[in-house]
């Protein structure tokens, strides 16, 4: 019960019954074989949690033998701090670094979970929070911060719950905040063909969640080549009121011909926002909004003030921003900056397959796309599967710029100028007046290669307009009845008359 009289093994710790306020402290820098399990009836509460933490210098390492590192089952009131978890070969197939599981019946969520300064590698999943079979609800008041989840088989960080029922929407988890998480090199399972593996951060069955200042990169490299679903860097499904904000997602891969993108709002997501994020160099889309199920539950979502740079590297059938799906409705895409180049895509370019800055497929209604910068080096600016009427999909005030030929596809027709497309489609008009531009936004990212910053993620500076005072004004948001949000990509206040793109000019008054 003191550093001088410490228990020698985790087996001894597991024989103890933990009560509110108890602390299990592991000596920093030491390696402990085995696992820790907290079961129903143990643990604490928000004011007196059970704490598992390191003491002394550095982090203690938990090294389980073929199983999970820390399991919290049917209980909460737990804080895990400053611990490193390393799995073995069997753990990579069957274990989780930190696993929170609830299969209790009833409607009361288990409250108060904190996971801070934890590293988990070598498991099936790095960290997972789940409502298992038999439970309708899982956890609330969950905070996962300053965590590294890497080199796991399936997912770095995953939250999941029971199957979504559109006729009676319910969500297993609530009040989830994920901040400062680094999810990388989670490879994917080459043997898993019926479901996606290899994502960085995946959230399902959550209500009121936020993913902030997190990074997902180089995930999915070994996901199955014939999988029906692929991985994403950071994505959400079967959830409502989720915010993905100020994150980066880059160089994520897919082994198959699906997904492999940066960010995604997938099936049955509602009232959610992707804002102030950067995606680049992904195999699939930078930002995907998708509904594959006819539930009508995919609605009222926003994609704003994001940047996509050279995405859809492997799969040009996607693009920088991609939206489509069955019975998807009420989607706003505005003030994003997308740069799409064919550099490095020689084989696909020769075959005529160039990823567009914006791709719109069928199945949507109530979609508004306005005040974005869509820029390419000769590839298509927009590819729309159908010649959408304005009542279903409306484009206004966007800047369509190409350093090569100007190209846009609208259903079966192709256009070589904004004027020609506007006249034929009645898009890019407002009260009978023309909107939209083909002005040069002066983005160095259109000609310069994607460069890394000090060996880490590339910055967004190359997608900042370089011609001061020449960036065109978009359509007046008040005219559209749209709430823009308070700031732009860099946190600058959005003016009452905003310019196009993710970056707004600084107020010099």
Automatic annotation (TrEMBL):
Domain Right handed beta helix: 191-337
SUPFAM superfamilies per the UniProt record, alphabetical: Pectin lyase-like
SMART domains: PbH1
InterPro entries given in the database record: Beta_helix, PbH1, Pectin_lyas_fold, Pectin_lyase_fold/virulence
Pfam family membership, one: Beta_helix
Protein name stated in the entry: Right-handed parallel beta-helix repeat-containing protein
Organism: Streptomyces zaomyceticus
């Amino acid at each position: 019960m003191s550093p001088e009289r410490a228990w020698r093994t985790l087996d001894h710790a597991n024989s103890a019954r933990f009560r509110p306020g108890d602390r299990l402290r592991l000596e920093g820098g030491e390696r402990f074989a085995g696992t820790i399990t907290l079961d129903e009836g143990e643990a604490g509460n928000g004011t007196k949690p059970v704490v598992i933490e390191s003491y002394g210098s550095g982090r203690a390492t938990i090294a389980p033998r073929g199983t999970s590192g820390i399991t919290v089952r049917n209980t909460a009131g737990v804080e895990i701090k400053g611990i490193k978890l390393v799995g073995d070969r069997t753990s990579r197939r069957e274990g989780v670094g930190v696993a929170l599981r609830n299969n209790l019946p009833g409607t009361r969520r288990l409250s108060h979970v904190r996971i801070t300064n934890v590293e988990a590698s070598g498991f099936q999943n790095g960290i997972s929070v789940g409502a298992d079979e038999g439970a309708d609800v899982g956890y609330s008041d969950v905070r996962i911060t300053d965590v590294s989840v890497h080199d796991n088989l399936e997912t770095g960080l995953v939250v999941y719950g029971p199957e979504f029922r559109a006729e009676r929407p319910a969500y297993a988890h609530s009040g989830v905040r994920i901040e400062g998480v680094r999810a990388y090199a989670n490879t994917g399972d080459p043997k898993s063909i019926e479901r996606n593996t290899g994502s960085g951060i995946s959230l399902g069955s959550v209500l009121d969640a936020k993913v902030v200042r997190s990074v997902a990169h180089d995930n999915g490299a070994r996901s199955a080549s014939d999988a029906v679903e692929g991985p994403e860097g950071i994505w959400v499904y079967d959830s409502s009121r989720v915010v993905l904000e100020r994150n980066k997602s880059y160089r994520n891969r897919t082994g198959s011909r699906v997904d492999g993108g940066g960010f995604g709002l997938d099936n049955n997501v509602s009232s959610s926002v992707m804002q102030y994020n950067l995606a680049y160099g992904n195999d699939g889309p930078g930002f995907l909004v998708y509904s594959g199920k006819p539930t009508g539950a995919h609605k009222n979502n926003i994609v704003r003030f994001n940047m996509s740079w050279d995405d859809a590297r492997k799969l040009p059938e996607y693009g920088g921003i991609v939206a489509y799906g069955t019975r998807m409705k009420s989607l706003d895409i505005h003030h994003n900056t997308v740069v799409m180049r064919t550099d490095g895509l020689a084989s696909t370019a020769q075959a005529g397959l160039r990823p567009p800055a914006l791709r719109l497929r069928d199945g949507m209604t109530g979609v508004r796309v306005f005040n974005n910068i869509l820029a390419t080096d000769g590839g298509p600016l927009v590819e729309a599967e159908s010649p959408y009427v304005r009542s279903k999909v409306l484009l206004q005030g966007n800047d369509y710029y190409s350093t090569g030929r100007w190209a846009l596809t609208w259903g079966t027709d192709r256009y070589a100028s904004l004027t020609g497309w506007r006249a034929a489609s009645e898009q890019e008009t407002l009260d009978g007046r023309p909107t939209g531009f083909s002005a040069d936004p002066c983005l160095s990212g259109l000609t310069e290669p994607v460069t890394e910053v000090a060996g880490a993620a590339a910055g967004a500076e190359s997608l900042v307009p370089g011609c001061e005072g020449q960036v065109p004004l978009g359509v007046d948001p008040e005219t559209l009845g749209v709430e823009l949000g308070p700031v732009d990509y860099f946190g600058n206040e959005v003016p009452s008359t905003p310019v196009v793109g993710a970056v707004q000019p600084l107020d010099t008054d």
